[in-house]
Recover the amino acids of this structure.
């Protein structure tokens, strides 16, 4: 059968509705990976390795993203996967909360409940996030993809900030009953917003309804994706860039405290500076990427490379600052790092959407979900490894040399990874949106 429907593309209101879904996902993820992290260690006296291992587990589960993406491809419907994923994500978060008090009297049962909870969290994030990106790639006009990525990711950050602020206010004074009520409220609100935001949204999105496509196995779909040099290069790029991006997550605040002597309040304020820079970078890349680039993913490579090089230079600045110590303009340096990270993140996501949606733009292969799943899995592996490598690397280096030199080593390694990612970005193949990727490479 031929492709059904016409391509009118999502308008800005529809893009904002999908942004609400991203905000909902971000709110529950904040609850699971940030709030529960602190509660486990401080209020329930668990070893810090427990929440760290659970967060790593939720990333490991997301290796199954291609499976969920393939499922939404075969069903030609993303909405059920998005809603179902958010529901599973919320259930996983609640299960983790309910397992906390078991740790004092029944530690084995508590560990089992927590493990199951974070497995569901990873599955929910993977299923909902992969299908959401696939729907964006299929429904957003090519020239709007960079801006759409910016809008949805900015709304995700807003969801994290709002839910963190609301949860913080409602949890004072802290009790387990309050934690259950607040967590349940966040999970239920996120699910309701997701249902409302996606209601009839998928109508009008072009579908590829070919008999052969419905019989395509996951293995065949994966082999078809990796047969394309552009897809292989982009997978390596996603892994390298996200590995560099995530290595700084767990060490910036300890760096400010150990090398610059900042108090917890002062080092925490740097996080606000960084995230403000990220938001400004996302806005700049979203506007610039849509206004000054065309339809092909390759035309975003300049923005991607600029974000990677800017991130590398900012990290080199932090390496220098680690040697200088107090007196270095740390806040400004971290603000520049955030801005460059934001430029890189949005332009990379825009390119990802363009590469995944290129075949769908022309009625070609219906494998958008599989492509998003492959790159989402690469990102999950990188995120899981990045934070771990950064934290362990600093600990090992501190035993062999001074604090300043230890952080210099890690920041320099991150900078080199970002430069390698910039080289990979420059090789992202531009292709004509008028033909599938495989034809463009021929």
């Amino acid at each position: 059968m031929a492709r059904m429907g016409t391509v009118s593309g999502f308008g800005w209101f529809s893009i904002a509705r999908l942004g609400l879904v991203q905000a909902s996902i971000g709110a529950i993820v904040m609850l699971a990976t940030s709030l529960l992290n602190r509660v486990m260690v401080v209020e329930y006296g668990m070893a810090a390795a427990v929440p760290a291992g659970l967060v790593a587990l939720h990333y490991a589960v997301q290796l199954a993203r291609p499976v969920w993406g393939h499922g939404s491809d075969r069903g030609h419907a993303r909405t059920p996967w998005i809603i179902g994923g958010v529901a599973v994500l919320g259930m996983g978060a609640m299960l983790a909360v309910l397992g906390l008090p078991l740790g004092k009297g029944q530690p084995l049962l508590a560990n089992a409940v927590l493990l199951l909870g974070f497995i569901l969290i990873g599955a929910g994030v993977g299923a909902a996030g992969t299908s959401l990106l696939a729907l964006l790639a299929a429904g957003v006009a090519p020239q709007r993809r960079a801006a759409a990525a910016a809008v949805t990711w900015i709304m995700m950050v807003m969801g994290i900030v709002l839910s963190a602020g609301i949860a913080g206010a409602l949890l004072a004074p802290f009790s387990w009953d309050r934690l259950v009520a607040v967590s349940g409220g966040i999970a239920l609100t996120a699910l309701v917003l997701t249902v409302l935001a996606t209601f009839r949204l998928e109508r009008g999105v072009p579908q590829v309804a070919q008999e052969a496509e419905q019989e395509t196995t996951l293995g065949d779909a994966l082999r078809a994706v990796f047969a394309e040099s552009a897809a292989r290069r982009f997978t390596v790029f996603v892994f390298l860039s996200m590995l560099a991006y995530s290595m700084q997550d767990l060490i910036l605040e300890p760096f400010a405290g150990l090398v610059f002597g900042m108090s917890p309040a002062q080092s925490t304020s740097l996080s606000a500076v960084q995230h403000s820079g990220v938001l400004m970078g996302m806005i700049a890349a979203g506007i610039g990427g849509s206004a000054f680039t065309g339809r092909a993913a390759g035309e975003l490579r300049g923005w991607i490379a600029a974000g990677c090089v800017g991130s590398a230079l900012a990290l080199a600045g932090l390496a220098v600052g680690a040697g200088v110590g107090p007196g270095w303009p740390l806040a400004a340096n971290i603000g520049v790092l955030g801005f460059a990270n934001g430029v890189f993140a949005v332009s990379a996501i825009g390119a990802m959407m363009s590469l995944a949606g290129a075949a769908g733009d022309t009625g070609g292969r219906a494998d958008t979900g599989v492509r998003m799943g492959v790159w989402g899995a690469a990102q999950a592996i990188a995120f899981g490894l990045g934070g771990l490598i950064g934290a362990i690397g600093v600990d090992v280096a501190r035993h062999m040399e001074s604090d300043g030199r230890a952080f210099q080593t890690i920041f320099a390694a991150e900078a080199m990874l970002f430069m390698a990612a910039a080289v990979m970005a420059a090789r992202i193949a531009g292709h004509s949106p008028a033909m599938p990727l495989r034809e463009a490479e021929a």
About this structure: The longest helix spans residues 107-139. The two ends are 25 Å apart (CA to CA). Residues 11-207 form a domain with the Growth Hormone; Chain: A; fold (CATH 1.20.1250.20).
